[in-house]
Write a structure and sequence with these properties.
The chain is α/β, with parallel strands linked by helices. It is 33% helix and 26% strand. It has one domain: P-loop containing nucleotide triphosphate hydrolases (Rossmann fold, 3-Layer(aba) Sandwich), CATH 3.40.50.300. It has 8 helices and 10 strands. β1 and β2 form a beta hairpin. The structure holds adenosine-5'-diphosphate (ADP) and magnesium ion.
Length: 246
């Protein structure tokens, strides 16, 4: 079942320092199935953040439409940014509780804190968290509202490799317990293969889809660096257009 269909006919920005417009996105059609984990991979400046902002409803200055099921509407969105954006004067738990809808019980946070190994840290303030811990809090906050789509914009880019790997594994654990449609932006092909059901490769501006590839590596093998690297090499050998992107 297709849950969300995105058709962006055009998205332009005023050209910087000159007259006219910069065409950021043209004729982009994407669809996402319920519960699918999709990684969007593309070069810096190709329009990935612009796309997520349009899906999130933060940017409405574009031509096109977003369909949820059969309806023209806006999906309920969870958005996890590069910077975790925690309120420094609230504890871990309070930061998550603030995101909840009125009808949601705060008790739903407990099992998520446990999966993300944050139960012991729930009453501390963000300044005492490591970079990896604050990403884990932001992930719980994103899942807690049970969004139609969870958007993640290069959330692990500033982490060292072992920490990024640990947070990725915990993210997958939480996602497998609470399946949600995830759109995860990265320019790290290994990260994308470790996480995604499907990879979407995007071109430089105006953004277009270059290839869409289902990741064949079984979920149980995603922690295996050799399996990830073997598929990465296979992709680079088979698709010269992907090699040029990265
Ligand atoms: P990415 O996230 O893939 O690195 P962005 O979506 O941030 O790319 O940007 C896509 C393009 O649009 C870039 O060329 C960028 O300079 C331009 N752009 C982004 N935001 C604005 C803005 N507010 N005004 C003008 N140009 C912008
Ligand atoms: Mg970006």
């Amino acid at each position: 079942m297709t849950q969300i269909q995105i058709n962006i006919h055009s998205k332009t920005y005023p050209a910087v320092g000159q007259a006219g417009h910069h065409l950021a996105i043209a004729n982009l059609n994407l669809s996402f199935k319920t519960g699918e984990f999709v990684c969007l991979v593309g070069p810096s400046g190709c329009g990935k953040t612009t796309l997520l902002n349009i899906i999130a409803g933060l940017d409405t200055d574009y031509e096109g439409e977003i369909l949820v099921g059969q309806q023209y509407t806006h999906p309920q969105i969870g958005y996890i940014f590069q910077n975790p954006r925690l309120l420094p004067w609230r504890t871990v738990r309070e930061n998550i509780e603030l995101a909840l809808e009125k009808h949601q019980s705060p008790a739903i946070i407990d099992p998520m804190l446990e999966v993300m190994q944050l139960t012991q840290a729930q009453n501390v303030y963000p300044e005492r968290l490591s970079l990896g811990m604050s990403r884990r809090v932001a992930i719980i906050r994103g899942f807690a509202i049970e969004p139609d789509v969870l958007l993640m914009d290069e959330p692990f880019v500033s982490l060292d490799a072992p920490t990024a790997r640990q947070v990725r594994e915990l993210l997958l654990k939480l996602w497998q317990q609470r399946p949600h449609t995830v759109l995860f932006v990265t320019h790290d092909l290994r990260e994308a293969i470790a996480l995604a059901d499907r990879l979407i490769f995007l071109s430089a501006a105006p953004m277009a889809v270059i290839s869409e590839i289902i990741v064949p590596v079984p979920r149980a093998e995603r922690h295996n660096e050799d399996a990830i690297e073997a598929f990465r090499q296979q992709l680079l050998n088979e698709y010269s257009e992907i090699k040029q992107l990265l």
